[in-house]
Amino acid sequence: MNIRENIENIEEKILSPFAVLSKNSKGRKKEDEVCNLRTAFQVDRGRIIHCKSFRRLKHKTQVFISPEKDHYRTRLTHTLEVSQIARNISRALLLNEDLTESIALGHDLGHTPFGHSGESALNEIVPGGFSHFKQSIRVAEKLEKDGKGLNLTYEVLDGILNHTKGTWPETLEGQVVRFADRIAYINHDIDDAIRGHILTLSQLPQDALKILGIESKFRIDAIMWSIIENSTNGKIKMSDDVTYAFNKLHEFMYENVYNVESQAKVETVKIPDFIKLLYEYLLKHPNSWPVDIKLIAEKESKERAVCDYIAGMTDQFAVELFKNIFIPKSWSL
To answer: What is the per-residue pLDDT across 87-98, written as a single tens digit (0 to 9) for each?
Structure first.
C-alpha cells in the first residue's frame, strides 16, 4: 500500500458519510497519472498554489484600489482567509479538508484587476458578458500551463464555479467555501474600512454586533460555530439569529462601503473608462499581444483573447501598460 492509498483508507474511516472521499472523485476531464504520494484533491491544491494566476492575486485589488499602506487585503490574502475559515469548518464537520482547501484556493483565479470594479467594467464591454467565477474555470481549464490547463477534478471545478451566485456546489465542501467566502470578505472589509477611516465601529449595526461580537475574530468565530452546530443531515446552515446578524452586516457594507464613493474608493469611478480604453486599443493592435494571447485569438476570437489578457493582469501591470500606451513620454535632445 502506497502513501496515497493509506490516506484514502484513513479518510474512509474518519470522515463524515456526507464528505467526498478522495478515491470517489468523479475524476478529471483528461486522463492523468495517479500520484502515489498525494490524493486527487491534494494534487489539485498543489497545481493551484504553483500556477501563475495564483501568484498574480497578490497584486490584485480586493476592495480598495492601490492603498498606500501595507496592511490592506489583496485578492491573495482574501483567498488565504477564505481557505482558513473553510478548512476550520470542514475539519469540525469531518468533511474532506483537502477538497475544501483546493476549492478555496482556486475560487478567485479568474478575478480581474481592480476588484469587482474591473469585473463590472469587463462585463459591460465584452460580448456575452464576464464573471470572475466563470473566468476562474476558464483559467483552470484552458489558460494555465500554456493552454493545457490545470486539469483539476470535477469536484474542485464545481466548487469554484458555484462559489458565489446561482446554483450551489454539489459537495458540502464546496458549500462550506461559499459560506467562507462571504464570512471572510464581509469581516475583513469591515476591518479595512475602519483602518481606512471610512467607518467607525460605532456605525456598524449594533444589534448585529451584540449577536456576533465587536471584534472581527469574535464575529468570525461566532459564525463558524453557528455553522458547525447547525449543519446536520447533509445541509450547511447557520442559526436564525446569526443569519440575521450576518445579513445585517452584509447589507450595511453594501449601503455604506461597496456602493458609495469614499476617499478610499474615489479612484474606482475611473476604472470603467480605463478598462474600456485598454480593451479597445488592444483589439485594434494585435501586434502588441503576447504570443499566448495571439493563440487564443486564432482558436476563438480576438474579443475573447483581449478579455483573457486584461482579466489576467495585475493592477500594476494594467496601469503600466496604460501609461505606455496613452501617456506621452518626455523627449530630450
So the answer is: 999 999 999 999
d(CA 160, CA 155): 9
Q: What are phi and psi of 61, to 5 degrees?
A: -65, 140
The whole-angstrom separation of Cα 91 and Cα 279 is: 44
Segment 25-29 mean pLDDT: 97
- Which tens digits make up the pLDDT trace of 75-122? 999 999 999 999 999 999 999 999 999 999 999 999 999 998 999 999
> Is 177 within 8 Å of 100 (Cβ atoms)?
yes
Please name the residue that has the C-alpha cell 494566476: 53
Residue 183 DSSP SS3: helix
Beta carbons of 114 and 273 less than 8 angstroms apart: no
The three grid cell numbers given for residue 314, joined into one nine-digit string: 495585475
Does position 52 have pLDDT exceeding 80, yes or no?
yes
What is the spatial distance between Cα 15 and Cα 11, in angstroms, rounded to a whole number? 5
Average pLDDT over residues 34-60: 97
- Do 167 and 183 form a contact (C-beta atoms < 8 A)? no
CA 208, 209, 215, 219 torsion-angle sign: negative
In the chain, the amino acid numbered 50 is H
Quote the distance between the C-alpha of residue 52 and its chain's center. Answer: 15
Q: Collapsing DSSP states into helix, strand and coil, what is residue 238? A: coil
